[in-house]
Design a protein that fits this description.
Layout (H helix, E strand, L loop, with lengths): L9 H19 L4 E2 L5 E2 L11 E5 L2 E5 L4 H9 L5 E8 L11 E10 L3 H15 L7 E4 H9 L8 H12 L8 H13 L7 E7 L9 E3 L5 E10 L2 E8 L4 H17 L9 H10 L3 E7 H9 L13
Parallel strand pairs: 1-5, 7-8
Antiparallel strand pairs: 2-4, 3-4, 5-6, 6-12, 8-10, 9-10, 10-11, 11-12
Helix pairs in contact: 1-9, 2-8, 4-6, 5-6, 7-8
Length: 313
Amino acid sequence: MTIWQASASLPMLQERANLLAAIRSFFAGRGVLEVDTPALALFGVTDRHLENIEARVNGQIRYLQTSPEYFLKRLLAMGAGPVYYLGKAFRDEETGPRHHPEFTLLEWYRPGWDEQRLMAEIAELLAGLSPAFTEPRQVRYGELFEAVTGLNPHTADLALLREAAARICAGDWQAEDRATCLDALFSLAVEPTLADGVVFIRDYPVCQAALATLAIDTDGVTVARRFELFINGMELGNGYFELTDAVEQRRRFVEDCQARRAAGKTTRAIDERLLSALEAGLPACAGVAIGVDRLLMQLVGETRIDAVLPFVD
C-alpha cells in the first residue's frame, strides 16, 4: 500500500506553524528585514564538509543552496541593515534521525554587533519559545575539549589528535587533517557531555574558523570568533563574528578547494560575487544560522526529524 500521508501529524504541523509565526513576530518587533533568497544558484560552497545538491537548468549546473549566507552578505554590503532568512536549505549526503537533505533554516545578521551581543539575542529568542530554554551557559571550546579528551585543541600535535581519533572513532586517521580530527573527537567524545540545557560553545580553533574573524583570547591563544549553539546535547546553530577581509576570504576559499581535491572530492568555483561584496565593504557584523526543524524537535521532545517535517518524499 502506498503511503501518501504527511510525515508529521496534524497537531505537529500546528506546532510547526506556531514556531514559524513566533520567529517572524520576534524579528518584526525588532525591525529586522525578512529576505527571501534564491534556493537555486550559480555557485555552490567550497567547504570540504558540505555538499550541494546539483540540478541542471538549460543544460548548465546549478546548486541548491546549503545556506543563504552569501546572498545575505551581499545585501549587507548594499546597506540593507539587519536581515534574516527563514526558509529551505539543502545538503547532500545528510540523512538520519537528525538530518534530512531538505530542511528549514533561520539565518540572520546584525551589522555593528559582535558575537556576544548576538548570543544574547539568541538567548532572548529561545526564552520566548520555552521556559526550558532559559539560563544558557557559555563554555570555551578549548577548555571543554581538554577537560574531556585531555588534549589542548589549539596546541596538541596533529599526530596525537590522529591517535585519539583512531581510538574513539576507529579506522585509519593518518591522512586526516587537524580540523577533521577535531570535528570527529568533538562529535563523539565532547558532545555527549552537553546533555542538559542551552549551551554556547565559543572560541573555536583557527583551523575551524570557516567565515569567522580571528582574535587573541585572554590566554594569548589565537582563536576563531565562532560559536555553536547546543540544546540538550543537540547542535542547533553556528555563528560568527563575520570575516570582512576579501583577501583573507579568498585565501580560505582556495584552501577549501585544495582540501576538497586532496580528499578526492569535486572542487567548486569560488563565488566571486561574494568576494566583490566584501571588497565593496561588508560592515562589521555577527551572524548565525539555526536549524528550525531541530529547534522544533527540542520544543516538542521528538528524537527523529521525520516526525516534525511535513513530508519526507
